Design the sequence.
């Protein structure tokens, strides 16, 4: 009994010590005169609701954003870390573009001792190492390369239509989110992994899907490790040394085997038209080490599949909620298809103005990566202000909140593609539309995402009227948002009704 009491005493003392240490920076924002919500809590700062999984992180940040209307910056504490939330658009331009050399890196840069593969992902690489990989990967996303991948993407889109037919019930209802996820994985699998994955039609039987899910579906422990990495270096190292990390090597073993096979296959049977995977293979041939090469392949899959899938899902849902927008878009698509002799070409698809407006409006309301971060690599003063950002400070750019800010957007909660019409361009603050980030570190795959989302949405509308099913959520409040994920995703199936067009 006495031993137990002593042990409990030691644990309690340790927790109290940790709690006290975690508060050591809590005076940062008041010292600087930067507005900040009151009462940060030991160990969690202002993120208690997210840690208790009552709301996803982006909603937590959105609450903080809205607490200080009219203020350009807000300081808060994520765990023990002081974070500067930037609301001012000019300051965002400075951080992401003009003074990029100071804010080159993300905080999410895992320690290679615990997270070897992940620490080599393009998103996590730092400084020169990041630059060297980014430069090598950029040609994979040129217009010419995208055009040559368009037929491959279209072929996956055809399978999306087949999957709708296969899945729909007697009312024509289909849970659309799994199909969108399979579409996202098949497209990236095909163009960046060199595999004919066909998750759309094979579903559970697809070995590629099983491998991807095995490697990248994070559980609660991995979620804790990623939050710890973001918000408490100390907690991340404690977890790492105890064997808890985000992406365990054994998890990637199966997917690594598939990659080995697909690399050998591509070398034996090269494609006539080069794709992202060819670019990755050339990189390896030209001296990029195997581990770094593998991580770039995984990072395409990781960063490119669920993001595009969620965008397809939100677009179809918004079109079902807004039938007049859907009709207008279909009219544009039908006219273009007729002019093109029955098939939408790559060039035509990119000329379709209303399709682009719909794509942008969906990403304005649903930027599936709802915030971005940067870390200051040296002491920095925000131009035109006396706001000092010390070396090592974490800076957040809350795209979700900015893209719904009523001081920037008229009637921001309304889905209205017309706000992106050319006639409205004078009223639009383009810098406040940042679903793909901004500056040299913006999403490398944005144009690929544009192509793959528009392609499958066009195909769907040319073949189906997309309607609300009985149990489709009618409003945002009814959506069951995943409270654990960094990207915006749903925890429940989203049914939509598909009526075949004559
Ligand atoms: C609608 C779909 C997508 C959205 C909304 C999206 C959004 C983003 C955002 C916000 C960032 C961070 C940008 C920043 O910090 O400034 C990012 C980075 C990245 N994205 Fe995407 N993305 C999408 C699709 C894709 C696709 C299809 C690929 C690959 C084929 C991709 C690959 C990447 C990579 C590798 C990075 C890290 C870039 C770097 O650190 O240099 N993304 N994405």
Sequence:
């Amino acid at each position: 009994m006495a031993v137990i009491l002593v042990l409990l005493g030691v644990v309690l003392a340790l927790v109290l010590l940790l709690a006290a240490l975690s508060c050591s920076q809590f005076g940062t924002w008041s010292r600087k005169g930067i507005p900040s919500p009151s009462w940060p809590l030991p160990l969690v700062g202002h993120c208690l609701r997210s840690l208790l999984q009552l709301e996803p992180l982006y909603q937590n940040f959105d609450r903080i954003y809205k607490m200080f209307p009219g203020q350009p910056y807000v300081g808060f504490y994520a765990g023990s870390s002081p974070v500067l939330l930037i609301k001012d658009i000019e300051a965002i331009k400075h951080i992401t573009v003009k003074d990029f050399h100071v804010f080159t890196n993300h905080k999410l840069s895992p320690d290679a001792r615990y997270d070897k593969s992940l620490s080599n992902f393009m998103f996590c690489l730092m400084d020169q190492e990041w630059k060297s990989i980014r430069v090598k990967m950029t040609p994979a996303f040129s217009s010419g390369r995208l055009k040559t991948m368009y037929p491959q993407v279209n072929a996956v889109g055809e399978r999306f239509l087949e999957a709708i037919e296969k899945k729909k019930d007697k009312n024509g209802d289909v849970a659309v989110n799994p199909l969108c996820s399979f579409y996202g994985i098949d497209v990236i699998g095909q163009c960046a992994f060199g595999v004919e994955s066909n998750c759309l039609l094979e579903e559970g039987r697809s070995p590629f899907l099983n491998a991807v899910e095995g490697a990248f579906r994070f559980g609660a422990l991995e979620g804790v490790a990623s939050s710890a990495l973001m918000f408490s270096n100390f907690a991340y190292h404690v977890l790492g040394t105890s064997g808890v990390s985000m992406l365990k090597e054994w998890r990637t073993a199966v997917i690594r085997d598939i990659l080995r096979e697909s690399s050998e296959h591509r070398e034996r049977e090269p494609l006539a038209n080069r794709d992202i995977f060819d670019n990755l293979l050339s990189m390896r041939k030209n001296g990029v080490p195997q581990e770094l090469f593998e991580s770039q392949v995984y990072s395409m899959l990781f960063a490119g599949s669920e993001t595009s899938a969620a965008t397809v899902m939100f677009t179809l849902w918004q079109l079902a909620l807004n039938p007049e927008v859907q009709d207008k878009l279909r009219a544009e698509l039908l006219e273009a298809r007729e002019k093109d002799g029955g098939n939408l070409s790559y060039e035509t698809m990119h000329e379709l103005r209303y399709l682009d407006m719909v794509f942008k409006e969906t990403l304005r309301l649903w930027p599936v990566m709802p915030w971005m971060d940067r870390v200051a690599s040296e002491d920095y003063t925000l131009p035109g202000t006396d706001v000092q950002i010390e070396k090592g400070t974490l800076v957040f750019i809350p795209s979700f909140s900015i893209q719904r800010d009523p001081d920037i957007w008229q009637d921001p909660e309304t889905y209205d593609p017309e706000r992106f019409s050319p006639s409205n361009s004078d009223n639009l603050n383009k810098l406040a539309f940042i679903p793909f980030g901004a500056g040299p570190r913006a999403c490398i795959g944005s144009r690929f995402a544009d192509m793959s989302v528009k392609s499958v949405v066009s195909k769907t509308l040319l073949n189906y009227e997309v309607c609300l099913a009985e149990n489709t959520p009618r409003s945002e409040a009814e959506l069951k948002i995943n409270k654990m994920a960094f990207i915006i995703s749903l925890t429940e199936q989203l049914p939509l009704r598909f009526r075949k067009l004559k």
Observations:
- Strands lie at 73-78, 81-86, 173-175, 372-375, 380-381, 388-389, 394-397, 464-468, 495-500.
- The pocket of protoporphyrin IX containing FE is lined by residues 122-123, 134, 188, 192, 299-300, 303-304, 307-308, 311, 368-369, 372, 435-438, 441-445, 448-449 (CB under 6 Å).
- The chain has a mean pLDDT of 92.
- Residues 1-120+384-400 form one domain.
